[in-house]
TrEMBL record, chain A:
Keywords: Oxidoreductase. Pfam families: GDC-P. It catalyses: N(6)-[(R)-lipoyl]-L-lysyl-[glycine-cleavage complex H protein] + glycine + H(+) = N(6)-[(R)-S(8)-aminomethyldihydrolipoyl]-L-lysyl-[glycine-cleavage complex H protein] + CO2. InterPro entries: GcvPA, GDC-P_N, GDC_P, PyrdxlP-dep_Trfase, PyrdxlP-dep_Trfase_major, PyrdxlP-dep_Trfase_small. Belongs to the GcvP family. N-terminal subunit subfamily. GO terms for biological process: glycine decarboxylation via glycine cleavage system; nucleoside metabolic process. Residues 1-446 form the Glycine cleavage system P-protein N-terminal domain. The glycine cleavage system catalyzes the degradation of glycine. The P protein binds the alpha-amino group of glycine through its pyridoxal phosphate cofactor; CO(2) is released and the remaining methylamine moiety is then transferred to the lipoamide cofactor of the H protein. This is Probable glycine dehydrogenase (decarboxylating) subunit 1. Its EC number is 1.4.4.2. It comes from Parasphingorhabdus marina DSM 22363. The lineage of its organism: Bacteria, Pseudomonadati, Pseudomonadota, Alphaproteobacteria, Sphingomonadales. The glycine cleavage system is composed of four proteins: P, T, L and H. In this organism, the P 'protein' is a heterodimer of two subunits.
Automatic annotation (TrEMBL), chain B:
InterPro entries: Aminotrans_V_dom (IPR000192), GDC-P_C (IPR049316), GDC_P (IPR020581), PyrdxlP-dep_Trfase (IPR015424), PyrdxlP-dep_Trfase_major (IPR015421), PyrdxlP-dep_Trfase_small (IPR015422). Keywords: Oxidoreductase, Pyridoxal phosphate. The lineage of its organism: Bacteria, Pseudomonadati, Pseudomonadota, Alphaproteobacteria, Sphingomonadales. It is an enzyme of class 1 (oxidoreductase). This is glycine dehydrogenase (aminomethyl-transferring). GO terms for cellular component: cytosol; glycine cleavage complex. Residues 1-30 are annotated as: Disordered.
Length: 452, 527
């Protein structure tokens, strides 16, 4: 077997050194009756690279790859061009096959990239500090809600109707067990976000108000007034960013007064990957740093006075604090954080701003074309690279039908909100730098065909 | 000195002292391949970029009046500089690709490159999680096939695929236990966890709203069954047992533990972090457990990536399967695969505790793990656990004359060998030994864990090391251990040859610097 270096002679020599007659002697603690007498049945035996590759390719080719057809899906996962050098960097064995940097003297590569990542995320979000990553945006969002509970000692979170429904579901799942109270309503197909409604729902029992920016329907609203209202009631504003590229074009949530900003970093460097692994971004104001979940990398010096980096403030974490930890997270999303930071380094502020404006203007151009299709209207008056169309038909079967024509038209609100019949005519369409004019024209033509 | 006719010396002059200590200072401070790399904030610039983009169409913006006018202050580098920046940084990292990485409980085994290649097939890497299911049949089948492998390897009837890592899997299991108890109107409040457990176990139980109490261990490093039985009662929701445990030992009473817990009305969570020691030889389902997470990044060799991403599917018994989280993949009679999500769950999975994560789990890890399983097959996986256990016992027996091995008397270990700092000279510690190993060219073992052994050193070689590599490691370990026992003061300042000497962790924590800030003189100059 190509991954196992021991030869039969090695095994025999080693057993002799140990003083065991056979490998079975090393499993004496396992009761005889639960030991299998041979390889598990109903599973194939070992196979060479060619055979395995053929099997996996057979599975892969039964999927419609986004790059092979006009593609307009977003709603929390976005298709961006990832520069070739990013994948090269994350495949360096010294990054790919390293562990969490517990021995900092021989992990400065990982640690310095995490320090740079934390700084980039903090600046992008407009907050003081950021951690070394979470699993993804949805789990980061729940962690932020629990952090607000610890800070405010209150258990009621007010969730915007524009928060991604999967993020809402994750929060509902957890809140059931932690006895947190969640105040949440379904979204409506209007150009205005629910900011005014949220404003009225903040009270002295509120731990936090959670707002997605841009929201699930693509809308962008100023959060400053909400931040002020929240702070007046000693509650926190949590902003959730599922499309970090947007922050190259629109104001940082921290600049509007958000106390905690979390997000999904998948857009930069990571790719679609059918939903994971992704990378959760987590930033906050300096004064809350000791309530943060997850790993933090900090600067220090070595015994010779040279600058170096270590994991720090670990007294918040499970391996030290056990049941009193701020979170149970251990392994996070290190390699995806590396992909994010390498992509961000390639972009720089200039590239990020250009990329954001390219996304936005392509979206504006596409929205213009699509809203001229008879039977379709554009819901949004503000958006970044994603907007909601209101279509004369139920969009869920429509999207399936277009997929059969090899056009991936967007995310139907029926898929995201199956229980909300009032949303069945909504279609979320995302446009990025990877979307060509021809793609948009094909979608327009196909929709005209279906709606005529 | 021998010289070629061009004047180039061909042999080292024997009179030159090449000892590292007498090496001259260099102008840069670098030493050949050991090169320091500045931060991107010190070398890059916000108006530089390594990406060329096409022009945007000429249309009005529609950003709701929220254009970002303030600087973002994220520097960029050209592609050439970017590649060099990260390549130089990578060379300051130890990794499995560089050498033996015996980090106990973490399972640092070789990461086959075929797995990487397969995960990057566009049919896996370039598909969106919300595409219509008919357009992602191959992806759904991949999840289904992996789930089948996991069920067969563990002998358990159900598996939840969406948990993002080991600790997330623990949470999944504990939430299922709590849901099952709630469903029968049983508001139990306590989870019992052995002192030797991973910190994630008690943290998870607390995160799910439980109180945590310790289970005592016996002198042989196992759960004290009688003490456990004495504590069980109507307030105990369940236990979390790691098996093989964190001392590297199999819990021979596991079935009796499960039976006792069940009899007392509780449920059994097994931390499967060490499944790699028994995969293919023992099915945890035969030990009476109700839930167990599997770290695909340990047992099934998906890369650790410097701290993730992981993947932590959870297998369930029949008692817990109905409460498993959404979504999951089912196969229809017509051979098509579909995701059971919130709306479809109502038909036949209406007591699920709900969704733990956006989308469907760590697909990129699923493709790697399935590739690994297909490569090894049932026979290869059995060999994997046997070689892992063989290598660990070889280390245990080769070093027990030099180091104290607190449980070696009780018989063989499983996949990792545990030593203590007993016998070290006054003033020298496990930390010093670890740093000495760095100078020998190794990543140290896990240190100070499990907590039940003083100065613990947990050594896990894994099955992907050759005998020659292990022999060399044993030699190095013995040498450093003897230095620790004889009181070699030089160990206290180790490592001497790493990119950094010991780092001041106290200073880092006292006044945390978590992001880079412009040095004051630069800020003043700019103003």
């Amino acid at each position: 077997m190509r991954y196992l270096p021991l030869t039969p002679e090695d095994r025999q020599d080693m057993l002799s050194t140990i003083g065991a007659a056979s490998i079975d002697d090393l499993f004496v603690d396992v009761p005889r009756e639960v030991q299998l007498d041979g390889p598990i049945r109903d599973l194939p035996m070992h196979a060479g690279e060619m055979a395995v590759e053929a099997h996996m390719k057979g599975l892969a080719k039964r999927n419609h790859a986004a790059g092979d057809m006009p593609f307009f899906l977003g709603a929390g996962a976005y298709r961006h061009h990832v520069p070739a050098s990013v994948d090269h960097i994350i495949q360096r064995g010294e990054f790919l096959t390293a562990y969490t940097p517990y021995q900092p003297e021989i992990a400065q590569g990982t640690l310095q990239t995490l320090f740079e990542f934390q700084t980039q995320v903090a600046r992008l979000f407009g907050v003081d500090v950021a951690n070394a990553s979470m699993y993804d945006g949805s789990t980061a969002c729940w962690e932020a809600i629990t952090m607000a509970r610890r800070i405010t000692k209150r258990g009621k979170a007010v969730l915007s109707s524009g928060l991604h429904p999967h993020y809402v579901s994750v929060a509902h799942t957890m809140a059931h067990f932690t006895k947190d109270q969640l105040d949440h309503r379904a979204p409506e197909l209007t150009a205005a976000t629910d900011s005014d409604d949220l404003f009225d729902r903040i009270d002295d029992d509120t731990s936090c108000v959670v707002v997605q920016y841009p929201d699930i329907l693509g809308r962008i609203a100023d959060m400053s007034a909400l931040a002020e209202k929240a702070h007046a009631h000693k509650a926190l504003l949590i902003a959730v960013v599922t499309e970090p590229v947007a922050l190259g074009a629109i104001q940082a949530p921290g600049a509007m007064g958000a106390d905690i900003v979390v997000g999904e970093g998948q857009s930069l460097g990571v790719g679609l990957q059918f939903g994971g692994p992704y990378v959760g971004l987590f930033g906050c104001k300096q004064k809350y740093v000791r309530q943060m979940p997850g790993r933090l990398c900090g600067e220090t010096v070595d015994a010779n006075g040279k600058r170096g980096f270590v994991l720090t403030l670990s007294t918040r974490e499970q391996h030290i604090r056990r049941e009193k930890a701020t979170s149970n997270i251990c392994t996070n999303s290190g390699l995806c954080a590396l992909a994010f930071t390498a992509h961000m380094t390639l972009l720089g502020e200039k590239g990020l701003r250009e990329l954001a404006m390219l996304n936005h203007k392509k979206a504006v151009a596409a929205a213009g074309k699509l809203s001229r299709v008879p039977g379709i209207s554009l819901m949004n008056t503000s958006y970044f690279n994603e907007f909601t169309l209101i279509v004369d038909k139920d969009t869920r079967p429509l999207v399936r039908k277009l997929a059969d024509q090899r056009i991936l038209a967007g995310v139907s609100l029926g898929r995201l909100y199956p229980e909300e019949s009032g949303l069945a005519h909504g279609l979320i369409v995302a446009v990025t730098e990877t979307t060509s004019d021809a793609d948009v024209d094909q979608l327009v033509e196909a929709l005209e065909g279906e709606l005529s | 000195m021998n010289m070629l006719s061009e004047g180039r010396p061909t042999r080292q002059d024997e009179n030159i002292n090449t000892g590292a200590n007498s090496a001259p200072q260099t102008h840069t401070g670098n030493r050949a391949l050991i090169v320091d790399e500045p931060l991107i904030f010190e070398t890059g610039s916000p108006d530089r970029s390594g990406v060329d983009l096409p022009d945007a169409p000429d249309v009005e913006t529609c950003l709701g009046g929220l254009e970002r006018h303030q600087p973002i202050a994220i520097p960029g580098l050209s592609e050439a500089e970017t590649v060099r920046h990260y390549t130089r940084l990578s060379r300051q990292n130890y990794a499995i690709d560089v050498g033996l990485f015996p980090l106990g409980s973490c399972t640092m085994k070789h990461n086959p490159r075929l797995n990487e290649k397969m995960a990057r097939l566009k049919g896996f890497a370039d598909i969106h999680p919300l595409q219509p299911m008919e357009s992602v049949q191959g992806a759904l089948e991949t999840i289904y096939q992996l789930a089948e492998w996991l069920k067969k390897l563990t002998g358990m009837p159900a598996v939840a695929m969406s948990p993002k890592a080991g600790a997330h899997g623990e949470l999944c299991g504990i939430l299922a236990i709590r849901s099952a108890l709630e469903a029968r109107g049983d508001a139990r409040e306590v989870i019992l966890v052995p002192e030797s457990a991973h910190g994630t176990n008690p943290a998870t139980a607390a995160f799910a709203g439980y109180k945590v109490e310790d289970i005592p261990a016996n002198a042989a490093g196992r759960v004290d069954l009688d003490a456990l039985k004495a504590r069980l009662g109507p307030d105990v929701a369940g236990v979390m047992i790691t098996n093989p445990n964190t001392c590297g030992l199999f819990e021979p009473d596991m079935k009796a533990i499960s039976d006792a817990v069940h009899e007392a009305g509780g449920l059994v969570y097994c931390d499967g972090a060490n499944f790699n020691a028994i995969v293919g030889r023992v099915r945890p389902g035969d030990l009476g457990i109700d839930a167990m997470h599997i770290n695909l990044h340990k047992t099934f060799s998906t890369p650790h990536g410097g701290g993730g991403p992981g993947s932590g599917p959870v297998v369930f018994s029949d008692a817990l399967a109905p409460y498993a989280p959404l979504p999951f993949v089912e196969k229809k009679d017509n051979g098509h695969y579909y995701l059971v999500e919130e709306e479809t769950a109502e038909d036949h999975h209406d007591v699920s505790f709900g969704r733990m994560v956006a989308f469907h789990g760590q697909m990129g890890m699923f493709t790697r793990a399935l590739t690994y399983m297909l490569s090894h097959g049932a026979d290869g996986l059995k060999q994997v656990s046997e070689d892992a256990v063989l290598n660990a016992n070889y280390i245990l027996r080769s070093l027990e004359d030099t180091l104290d091995a607190p449980f070696a008397h009780s018989g063989p270990c499983m996949h990792e060998a545990l030593f203590s700092d007993k016998g070290f000279a006054e003033g020298l510690s496990t930390l010093d030994l670890a740093k000495g190993l760095i100078d020998e060219g190794y990543h140290p073992m896990t240190m100070y864990f499990p907590l039940v052994v003083h100065g613990a050193m947990l050594v896990e070689p894994t099955e992907t090391e050759s005998k020659a590599a292990i022999d060399q490691f044993i030699g190095a370990f013995r040498s450093v251990a003897e230095r620790a026992k004889s009181g070699d003061e030089a160990l206290k300042s180790a490592p001497h040859f790493a990119p950094r000497h010991r780092l001041d962790e106290t200073r880092a924590a006292r006044k945390p610097i978590l992001v880079w800030e412009e040095p004051e003189e630069l800020v003043e100059a700019a103003e």
